[in-house]
Write a structure and sequence with these properties.
Layout lengths: L2 E2 L2 E2 H32 L6 H19 L3 H22 L9 H23 L15 E3 L4 E3 H23 L1 H11 L1 H6 L4 H23 L11 H14 L4 H21 L7 H12 L10
Antiparallel strand pairs: 1-2, 3-4
Helix pairs in contact: 1-5, 1-8, 1-9, 1-10, 2-3, 2-4, 2-8, 2-9, 3-8, 5-6, 9-10, 9-11
């Protein structure tokens, strides 16, 4: 075992891996927030609860119906997205012409209701969710052992994030979505159902959060507070990358995860606040965020 800056390589790379895994969840969740805010102008504080619901639905599918991890990766995001579509149609759609604060307060209240209901029913102790057999074990990379499942989380996150970026930025569907936020009347004149497009966009952002929840279930214990513990950090990531910036959400999510991991190695006391310190500095230097554009 060799040392880097006086630190054993295994410890350093282990923390970098941990930071990369955290960054994977930051990237997917902040991407969902960026999609919803960038295209709908709604600050979706329910995102943490929807991430938690993804993990809970995966756990319920396995516990009550015997449906395993691979099907849960598909079914849980779809089921949680349906609840998001209902929420958007019944409540959020009434707030599009109002100040952003109203959407934030509404989604914050919904998040508290969801967390409270599950906390009363299941308690706050975490429930385990087993790693699928195909992804168990670890690979020897020479300088460290890489758990197969954690490597899968990073790869799956990258694929989903880059695929979402490509669809929104490089396809005709993405062009319609961006145009609908700028001039919905003009887009509607081309025969496109703008309200339905907006609803499906919100549902997709919710599905991203639920997908991250399924990925997180085997790593972290499934409990009603898992989203509340993460959403504040994810909002900081979104602000640093630039509100509504798709590329900013992805790059900043992974980058800040690595920064957090390195901080745990060199200055552990600051690891819980380093992201917020970076946010304060970025807001002072570039209020629109690293990848954002000033309005």
């Amino acid at each position: 075992m060799f040392e880097i800056f006086g630190i054993p390589s295994q410890a350093l790379f282990g923390q970098l891996l941990l930071g990369l895994i955290n960054g994977s969840f930051y990237a997917i969740l902040s991407l969902g927030l960026a999609v919803i805010f960038g295209l709908l102008n709604i600050i979706n504080f329910t995102h943490g609860a929807q991430y938690m619901l993804g993990a809970f639905v995966a756990w319920m599918l396995l516990t009550y119906f015997g449906i395993g991890y691979w099907w849960a990766l598909i079914l849980a995001p779809v089921l949680v997205a349906v609840t998001g579509v209902i929420l958007e149609r019944l409540l959020i759609s009434r707030l599009y012409q109002l100040d952003h604060l109203y959407g934030l307060l509404l989604t914050f209240g919904v998040a508290l209701i969801v967390q409270g209901v599950l906390r009363n029913h299941y308690g706050i102790s975490g429930m385990p969710y087993s790693i699928p057999e195909e992804l168990s074990g670890a690979m020897n990379l020479g300088f460290m052992f890489l758990p197969v499942y954690r490597g899968w989380v990073v790869v799956a996150s990258l694929v989903v994030c880059l695929g979402t970026w490509f669809v929104i930025e490089k396809t005709r569907l993405g062009a319609y979505l961006r145009a609908a936020t700028e001039n919905p009347a003009l887009v509607g004149a081309f025969g496109i159902n703008v309200p339905r497009m907006i609803t499906l966009t919100y549902g997709f952002g919710v599905a991203l959060a639920a997908f991250a929840g399924v990925l997180a279930a085997p790593i972290y214990s499934v409990n009603p507070n898992m989203g509340a513990d993460l959403i504040i950090v994810v909002f900081a990531v979104v602000v640093i990358g630039g509100m509504g910036s798709i590329l900013g959400a992805i790059a900043t999510g992974f980058g800040l995860g690595l920064v957090e991991g390195l901080t745990k190695v060199f200055y552990p006391e600051a690891s819980s606040v380093v992201i917020f310190v970076i946010m304060a500095i970025v807001l002072l230097v570039k209020p629109a965020g690293l990848f954002g554009r000033a309005s």
